[in-house]
Amino acid sequence: MKEKTSNPSRNAMGRKVAPKTVDEYLVDIPEPAHSTLKHIRAVIRSVVPAETAEVISYGIPMFKYRGMLVGYAAFKNHCSLFPTGSGVLDRFEKELRGFRSSKGTIHFPSDKPLPDALVKKIVKARVKENREWD
Which residue in 57, 20, 26, 28 sits closest to 41, CA to CA? Predict the structure, then answer.
């Protein structure tokens, strides 16, 4: 008989509970968004300082270094990147053409992550901003 494994994003009644870790957040994300967000996470990790923490804030994964840097999330029809801070989206306006964006968020298809180079530039800009504010 197969042993039942527990899913940390569900309570004993099978109801969804707020994730406490990034891995708990990602466990219930369906494909293709799951793979897309794992890729975005890896790209972000590749450029943040070693002392950067991954946290859950407002129910989504966030990277924290001298304050919040960026977050990401999956939604029904898209994924989003949330570069906190002021002016980051304005600085990358040309490179963000073709993506829906609003104040503080960039939307992209669940099956197609933002270009790695763009994510790296945005994250590096946020790290720089947070260092300057510190």
Answer: 26
3-class SS at 56? Answer: strand
Sign (positive or negative) of CA dihedral 22, 24, 29, 35: positive
pTM score of the predicted model: 0.85
All structural domains of the chain = 22-124 (3.90.1150.200)
Write out pLDDT tens, residues 25-50. Answer: 999 899 999 999 999 999 999 999 99
Q: What is the distance between the alpha carbons of residues 41 and 1, in angstroms, rounded to a whole number? A: 36
**DSSP class per residue in 61-117:** EEEESSSEEEEEEE-SS-EEEEE-SSSHHHHTTTTTTTSEEETTEEEE-TTSPPPHH
